[in-house]
Amino acid sequence: MPVPLVCIPAMLADASLFDAQKDGLHGLADLLPLEPVAARSLEEMADAVIDQLSTPAVVMGVSMGAAVALEVALRAPEKVLGLVYVAMTAAAVSDRGQGEALITRVNAGDFSGAVADLLPLLVAPDRIGDEPLTRQIVRMANAVGPDRGVLQEMALLERPNRLDHCPQIRVPVLAVAGERDAIVRAAEVNATAARFPYARFEVLTACGHLPPIECPLAFNDLLRSWLARYAL
Fold it and tell me: Any idea of the CA torsion for 52, 54, 58, 59, to the nearest 10 degrees?
């Protein structure tokens, strides 16, 4: 029987981030891709997700969405069958400069320019010329918009250090990193994975910060293997 799989998008992304997983996981998972969440804290975002969990589910998130997924698992463990986090570290932000600069620029009215400058950080270097991919990223960012984008960045800047809380999560965990992620390095994802009692860590080669759309086939293969192994 397919397992419910709640999907929380990254900052400046919407539910279409997970379009390739709908068909790719057919028969193994019933996807519930959520629309963008935005609040002044990750805890508030997590509470909004928890309110939508009518039945226990595997919770998956990418980047900011992964940080929210972790909060969901900590705040409502009875509702979480497993956790998939992509491009995330559970550590607090060590350098606020880039995030604060982004907020200042967006608040000054240059949302489009801020998104354009983010693109080289979001995808592997050899994919920056992939127009369908970059168009989708820009479209998702525009769907989220500057107001929600600023709220999301503010929440990320204030995220608590959860490394010491990870051992509390007693369900299977899949941690995925992009080998060419310029925002969250694979070593950081692995360092967080090591804190969970039941974690599997995987690196996707030639992939950046957004594996569900950058390398959907390889990402889906990982998910299928993990879901089947644990019979979730």
Answer: 10
